[in-house]
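Input/output pair, single chain:
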Amino acid sequence: MIDAPLAERMRPKSLDEYVGQEHLTGSGAPVRLALEKRQVPSMILWGPPGTGKTTLAHIIASMVDLPVRVLSAISSGVADLRSVIQEAKDQGRIILFIDEIHRFNKSQQDALLGAVEKGWITLIGATTENPGFEVNNALLSRCQVYVLRDLEEADLLRIIQRALEEDVLLKDYDIDLQETHALLRFSGGDSRKLLNLLELLLTAAEEKKLMITDRLVEQVLQQKMAVYDKSGEQHYDIISAFIKSMRGSDPNAAVYWLARMLHGGEDIKFIARRMVILASEDIGNANPNALLMATQCFQAVSLIGMPEARIILSQCAIYLATSPKSNSSYMAIDAALDAVRKTGDLPVPLPLRNAPVKLMKDLGYGQNYEYAHAHPGNFADMEFLPDALQNTAFYHPGSNAKETELRRWLAARWKAKYGYDKEG
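Output:
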């Protein structure tokens, strides 16, 4: 172990050494309780890099005294999975840890289903991506999902202090920890990166003496915060700049921030998903084709991959940036949700209720319903909202060509129905 990186040398071997994630490993928390009962379920550990997913998986395996097999979704395939499953069938239950399980495709994930269901393997999958998007529903339903949170500053300081006190190599140095701000900032909350940075600082030591200051950290790293870090603060700052550039109709800035993310190795599906959201939230009915374009972009980059996916992402980003903008659909659903919270479960008007049996029809369900297609212009002069919300307008068309046309169309029908413009 003396030749291993500091982060590996300091990897906790027990829950008592494990730092952070008290909501999972503290007294009475679900993972600790499962370990105490020796009843560990298959699970997905979801959280940012460096928060302890791999470490927790190895601690779990050691505490239940089961053999553990480790696969990386980047380099492993179905044949590797089948080999582990066959080993479990022949020799007994195995804990299978799969790092970056979100990178397994559907057929690879499906290969796990039977073995997990039959209990041949206890699966522990680690992912930095939302498992609701990236893990098949069938597999997800067979696993507990545990969310690992970003490490707090106090957690990171504990990790540094433990390394200074316990690591066999660091103890050979006279280290004066004067400042920690830069160390914490450049680590981005990633404990592995934090320890790697600490180890890197040893190159600046003179005669085994080292005073750690913020300035020293910046000098040794020879980098500034502008460097893209897909697992740290820059990940969120740059995707925010990308979204705001498209929302602000600036295709040049949008392409620049897209290039920053691609150059930094950002997940192309993460970028595409955010464009799907923007297409509805910020463009909506001002250009309904934007959502179709963004959805097709997501499907295309998922099929094609890099490097060609960069062209598809660029085309979509420019299209969204140059589209007319409207947040009226976003505002409408939030207004409707606010009304639901304030008014509760209002009864559905009788004419709108389903009447599958005679008793319901006798009670008035479905009576006096006006079938829109039986009226001129396919417009029925009736109220569709609950009585307490009659005449309420949640949707206010935006001031763009498409929704101005919609406004005129709705205004004519609202005026015929209510005698006035419902928006007014």
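Confidence is low (pLDDT under 50) at residues 223-228. DSSP finds 20 helices and seven strands in the chain.
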